[in-house]
Amino acid sequence: MKHVKLGVNIDHVATLRQARKEKNPDTVEAARVVYSSGGDMVVMHLRQDRRHIQEADLERVRREVKGILHLEIAAIPEMEKLALLIHPDSVCLVPESAREVTTQGGLKLNGRNKELEKTIKNLSGAGIEVGVFCDPEPQVIRTAHNMGADSIELCTSSYSGAWGKKLQARELEKLQLAGFLVKELKLQLHAGHGLDYYNVAPVARIEGMDCLNIGFSIISRAMFVGLKTAVSEMKRLIQ
User: Fold this and answer.
1) Domains and CATH numbers, the chain
2) Active-site hit among 12, 70, 72, 190
3) Residue 45 a catalytic site member
4) N or C: more exposed end of the chain, with fewer CB within 10 A?
């Protein structure tokens, strides 16, 4: 059976720290626990408003922690410049709105976006794997592929928020069909957003799934059982 990688988003470790502007909880320590508990990569989203992760977090994790760093950023010049400076192993380009509580769906790609295409080209040229956060829609996936993306992260928010077995099954089927297309285009298949300990297994079993990126549910669980246990439990569920 294929090994599905687990990317653990540690943004909300920084959210708690920023509530008091203290040094702890430390994202470097969190990253080390993620790797020692079976996580395959650490995910960090540097937002324009710096509500949680700061540049210093990225610099320290990249410098002090041995492991794969996956950075989520908006596709804007400021973030491209920072990504090229920090040089994570991979980047996922995501939509971002100033007032949103969390990311609201995938990037809207109705046609070729020259600026986005340039960002992808510049990051790829620096040896950084580039992904695009997409809703499970064929046209969007094909556009991202044509623009040079290496991977597609399917937005699972509709699946995660579906109420009832029938609706959830319908949303899962959309993800499965989108996954077939991603693999047909010979791209890496990732998924995430809203996945938790109760709904993750069916998504992990989607044919060709390479990696699941999960944050909020793991950090929430860690408050009661500890981060090491929370990561280990999620890792077991996706195998």
Assistant:
1) 5-238 (3.20.20.70)
2) 72
3) yes
4) N
